[in-house]
C-alpha cells in the first residue's frame, strides 16, 4: 500500500472529539485559496489537488478517499453559493443499477474508495471573489455518503 493511501485512510478514520470536522486546506497560492470542511457528522474524507494554478486550466487531477455506505445508486449535487444565494446547481447520477460509470459503484458499507484522476470544471471561468461550493453525495436510500462545503477565495483576473 502506498504511503499516500495510508495517510488518506488515517484521515478517514480519525475520530474528532469536537462536534465539527476540521477545515482542510486544499491549496493556497497568491491569488487562489481553496479549503473544505466535511458537513457529514459521521465522517470526514480526504481531498487534494496538485497545485492551485491547475484549477484555472479547467481540467486538473484530484485525489479523494472516503469510507463508504452501501452504494447501489449514487447521486451527486453541487451548488455554487455567493452571498448566501445559490447561483448554480448541478446534479448527476453517478451510479445506477446496470449502468456503473465508476469502479466504486456497487461497493459495500465499510469499503473505502481512493480516486486519483482528472476532473473537468463545467464552467469557463472561476468566479472572482469569495464563495462556497456545497457538494453532497447520497445513495439510493437518500443516506449521505459524503458531504463537504468548499470555500474558494479567487483573486485571479482572467
TrEMBL record:
Entry-linked Pfam families: E1_DerP2_DerF2
Entry keyword annotation includes Membrane: no
Keywords, sorted A to Z: Signal
InterPro entries reported in the protein's UniProt record: Ig_E-set (IPR014756), LY86 (IPR039945), ML_dom (IPR003172)
SMART domains to which the protein is assigned, alphabetical: ML
PANTHER family: LYMPHOCYTE ANTIGEN 86
Name listed for the protein in its UniProt record: LY86 protein
